[in-house]
Amino acid sequence: MSQWSQVQQLEIKFLEQVDQFYDDNFPMEIRHLLAQWIESQDWEAASNNEAMATILLQNLLIQVDEQLDRVSQEKNLLLIHNLKRIRKLLQGKYHGNPMHIAVIISNCLREERRILAAASMPVQGPLEKSLQNSVVSERQRNVEHKVSAIKNSAQMTDQDVKYLEDLQEEFDFRYKTIQSLEQSDKNSALIKQEMLALQAMLNTLDYKRKEVLSKIGRVIHEIDTLMSNMLTEELLDWKRRQQIACIGGPLHGGLDQLQNCFTLLAESLFQVRRQLEKLDELLTRLTYDGDPIPLQRPQLLEKVNFLLYNLFRNSFVVERQPCMPTHPQRPMVLKTLIQFTVKLRLLIKLPELNYQIRVKATIDKNVSTVSNRRFVLCGTHVKAMNMDESANGSLSVEFRHLQPKEMKSSAGSKGNEGSHMVTEELHSISFETQVCLYGLTINLETSSLPVVMISNVSQLPNAWASIIWYNLSTNDPQNLSFFNNPPAATLSQLLEVLSWQFSSYVGRGLNSEQLNMLAEKLMGQQVSYNDYQLSWAKFCKEHLPGKSFTFWVWLEAILDLIKKHILPLWIDGYVMGFVSKEKERILLKDKTPGTFLLRFSESNLGGITFTWVDQLENGDVTFHSVEPYNKGRLSALPFADILRDYKVIMADNVPENPLKYLYPDIPKDKAFGKHYSCQPNEVSKPSDGGGKGYVPSVFIPVSKILNDSTDPHSPSDLLPMSPSVYAVLREHLSPTVIETAV
């Protein structure tokens, strides 16, 4: 079943989550019509490979054209109209930046997998639940409403200033007219009456000036209150959601909405600034005793400038954290001399700033807070922000060719990069720029989340564990000394993050039973683990009891095994994986003989085994487990083919496949048939070369089981015999001869 088919069967509350991340950037109509084709492409790799992304975009448009031809024949007018619109939109939006649509589709597929994993869990995880708090959603709506109200108030004040300007012009004209008269004329009754009218007009001007200043003061106060409270909280929440998304959690949205709020507030503040400048112009033409403009305007202007400084400083954010293109699902782990990408955005989107802001990238700017290892950034580390590179027209800049290089230490040698401590050292990549606009000069600075620098890819698993632990445990964006005394983590939250590792990296998260097994492995038999605190050492530094490796190294090896060797089987949900030997026997003991399940080895790194139940002649139940298969064996023979061709030679020397039903009762071929590399009953024929032709052979895994053996059974060396040849031998030869052959 395709991933999209599974999504469509979700409950309405999960479907609503899916609906949130499909929009004009990637319309749901295309996801639906091209479901299988979309899922068969490697969008993740294309998101960091422009040539590959260009080809995929072209192929996507071809697929849309084919759908257009199909619906045209069906004369479906509405669908024809929508597909034409969507095709035009996709081509126009992504023609100059095909990698952007690859990022979007990759994120959508990943988010679908995460939601499918969440739907399979009995309850929503604590972290995800906190991120989807209804109070947060309500605050988002309030912020947008207040920003809109502030913008309207600023525009209304513009009209008041214009009225004040017109009133003062009329006063100036009438006053100058009287001043131009002869002294004798000024004593007339008519002129005295006009002077009284001018005094009344001056009183009105004074009242209007005070009123305008009061309205400007209220707008400034509303902006200040909004920025100090709700907008700051919104920005902090977005940054926290970004942290969680970086370690596999739900995609973080809301940056476009924040950009809209920041931009509208900046426009309102600049509008208020112009209003204060206009009042200053009016002041130069007319002032009087008790004039409110010289008394209030300086303080108001100072407050506006202060708010603009703060707004700009908060608007400079890292939109996409540093990440190596070779490891897109391991952000913030950087390898020396390997390029990485990072993207920044200014949330205040003003046309006047396009290509006017140059951003400089540095590493470990505040060197006093990091280790003795020193790095420099090679490559293009100064670039201009612009609105042309992003599909949504945001004011942003993406560094794509930065490389970290370690500097020689004072002793002339590099730091101890082989030690475990290297992966616990946190570093920071900083970005600085300057905005010059309307007479204001504002220095901006921001930093990435802490990164871990490695010099060898073998350090990546432990480095990624450090990134997970940091971003799970703290929302402090710059605590570079975090691992001097790393805090414990709540086990329930950690298990949720571990499930995200599977849903984001290998397409299927963990269910409650699998998570329970991991919990037991981490803390032993406990009644409840919701409030259990797990130390960093127990997670990543201390060896598991009786083993030569840590819990995290064991889990990372399983992720690698799934990704490289059994991914389709894992995604289909046919690998139980995390189940103890004791639980395994409880599950199998009452099942039909030949029922088996697949589990990950607890004693071998990156190993997978299968156990089946059998029944002796006396009715007793027995269990057989094969020696775990590691990546070496699985590189030679696909795991599905192993399950299909696996043979056991019993004491009577009759080879047979003992695997009949995948737990609980799924016929083996029904579960794995579509993953077989070839059909076993196809008889191979010599090639067209006469005597030079060869009959193709395959490897068949064989184990020998002795009746009195209670030890786990190991597969012998894989034997080069085609299934078709074996079938013919079995049909025509006796078991004794077959034993000689194998």
Automatic annotation (TrEMBL):
Its main location: cytoplasm. Residues 570-672 form the SH2 domain. Keywords: Acetylation, Activator, ADP-ribosylation, Coiled coil, Cytoplasm, DNA-binding, Isopeptide bond, Methylation, Nucleus, Phosphoprotein, SH2 domain, Transcription, Transcription regulation, Ubl conjugation. One of its GO terms (cellular component) is cytoplasm. One of its GO terms (molecular function) is DNA-binding transcription factor activity, RNA polymerase II-specific. Pfam families: SH2, STAT_alpha, STAT_bind, STAT_int, STAT_linker. It is found in: Cytoplasm; Nucleus. It comes from the Eukaryota. GO terms for biological process: cell surface receptor signaling pathway via JAK-STAT; defense response to virus; negative regulation of developmental process; regulation of apoptotic process; type I interferon-mediated signaling pathway; type II interferon-mediated signaling pathway. Belongs to the transcription factor STAT family. This is Signal transducer and activator of transcription.
